[in-house]
Structures are given as C-alpha cells and as structure tokens.
C-alpha cells in the first residue's frame, strides 16, 4: 500500500502529538499514513469526508481521533484487554487511528451504511488490524455489550448518543464524544462529566473532548 506523503501535514501532526508528550512508534505512524492514503483515494468514490478536509486530513481528523488515546493514557485509564466500541464509525475516525495505536485493546466499529461497511472491512484487512471487528449494523441492534469505553464522533446530541450507548457500557465505564467547545460548555453541569478543551492545527475554533464516567 502506498504511504501518504505530505511533509507539512505530517510535521503538524507530529508537533501536535509532541505538545502532549505523545510519541508513536514508527509502525503505528506508517499505518496511520496508509489509512489516510486509503481514505483520500476512496473518497473519490464514496463520500467519507468533506472534500474541503482532504488536504488537512491528518490535522483535522487524525489528530482529533487520537485525543481520547492521549487523554485516557495520561489519566492511566487505558488497560490491555479493554473493550472499546464506536457508534456510527463512518469513514473510520476515530476508531481506526485508535485501533492502530492501541493494539492490546479490542475494538468494535458499528456502521449501518453498506458502502462504508465495505470500506471499513477492506481497510481493516489491508492494515492487518486484528484487534478491530467491523459490524454492519446500527449500534442499538449490533449486540455489542459489556464495553469499557464507547465513543462516537459527529452523530447527534450528547443526550441521545449517551442514551444509545448506556445499555452496552460496563460499570465503571466511559462514554466519549467530540464537540466544539461552545457546544460542550452546555454540558458542564452533568454529573461525572469531564470536558477537555483543545486546539487542532490549522483550525480556528476550539474543540472539547467530552468524557462521561459511569460508576456504581
């Protein structure tokens, strides 16, 4: 598989990771670049991402997708053998970057749209991501259960997504979603919630990682 090559984007991603004292092994970076190349090529046939995001895929989508890894690792939450499911995985962000950098965690990607399911499955095979299972169903009917972590990116309102995820979460467990900082501020009074603000390279607005802990 041809490696993605855009030195400017690659350097911005590495600088972003370095700013959080996060350094990925060479084989993980190679797989991330391969995944990026695959998304950009496939986007010509299947609408996986906005065309405007193609030139900045590493800084807009990969950097964003790695934020849960950066923050949960920093908080010593990630453990080998955990189960992590992603709702509505679309073109594979955040689940593919996360599966690449966390090979000892078992991941599930739930996506009902057939063209995207085919893309996810073929890309998983090409990247040899044995820790990732693609399920071509809506999350509610996927029979995924007993997850330590459930994530979603760009689905619907926090309350709706959390309600959808809750039956499949272990206690304790974590629900993670991505919001703009402006929208996330509306969630700050929810019990057991953590809002982590961050900036992405080249993006004018701020973002927030929303982590809701499930206890008891």
What keywords describe this structure?
216 residues, 8 helices, globular, alpha/beta, 37% helix
Task: Give a written overview of the molecule.
The protein is 37% helix and 23% strand. It is an alpha/beta fold and 216 residues long. The chain has a domain at 66-214: Rossmann fold (3-Layer(aba) Sandwich), CATH 3.40.50. Strands 3-2-1-4-5-7-6 form a 7-stranded mixed beta sheet, with helices on both faces. Helix 1 runs parallel beside helix 3 (57-65) and helix 2 packs antiparallel against helix 5. The N and C termini lie far apart (46 Å).
Strand order of the largest sheet: 3-2-1-4-5-7-6
Query: What top-tier CATH class of the domain at 66-214 fits best?
Result: Alpha Beta
The strand count comes to 7
Major sheet: 7 strands, mixed
The fraction of residues in strands falls at 15-25%
Number of helices: 8
What CATH architecture of the domain at 66-214 do you see? 3-Layer(aba) Sandwich
Shape: globular
Radius of gyration: 16 Å
Distance between the termini: 46 Å
Q: What name does CATH use for the topology of the domain at 66-214?
A: Rossmann fold
Averaged pLDDT, please? 94
Low-confidence stretches: none
Helix amount, in percent? 25-40%
H/E order of the elements? HHHHEHEHEEHEHEE
Compose a concise summary of this entry.
The protein has 216 residues and is α/β, with parallel strands linked by helices. The chain has helices at 7-19, 26-42, 57-65, 67-74, 95-101, 114-127, 158-165, 181-184; strands spanning 83-87, 106-110, 132-135, 147-153, 169-180, 193-199, 206-214.
């Amino acid at each position: 598989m041809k490696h993605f090559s855009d030195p400017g984007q690659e350097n911005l991603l590495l600088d972003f990771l370095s700013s959080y004292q996060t350094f990925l092994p060479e084989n993980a970076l190679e797989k991330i670049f391969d995944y990026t190349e695959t998304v950009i090529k496939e986007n010509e046939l299947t609408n996986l991402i906005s065309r405007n995001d193609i030139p900045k895929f590493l800084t807009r989508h990969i950097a964003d997708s790695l934020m849960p890894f950066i923050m949960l690792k920093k908080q010593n939450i990630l453990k080998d053998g955990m189960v992590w499911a992603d709702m509505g995985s679309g073109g594979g962000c955040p689940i593919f970057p996360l599966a690449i950098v966390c090979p000892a965690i078992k991941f599930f990607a739930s996506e009902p749209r057939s063209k995207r399911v085919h893309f996810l499955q073929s890309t998983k095979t090409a990247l040899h991501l044995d820790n990732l299972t693609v399920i071509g169903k809506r999350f509610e009917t996927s029979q995924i259960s007993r997850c330590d972590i459930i994530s979603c990116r760009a689905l619907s309102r926090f309350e709706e997504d959390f309600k959808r995820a809750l039956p499949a979460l272990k206690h304790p467990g974590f629900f993670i979603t991505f919001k703009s900082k402006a929208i996330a501020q509306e969630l700050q009074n929810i019990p057991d919630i953590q809002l982590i603000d961050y900036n992405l390279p080249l993006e004018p607005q701020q973002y927030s990682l929303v982590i809701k802990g499930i206890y008891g």
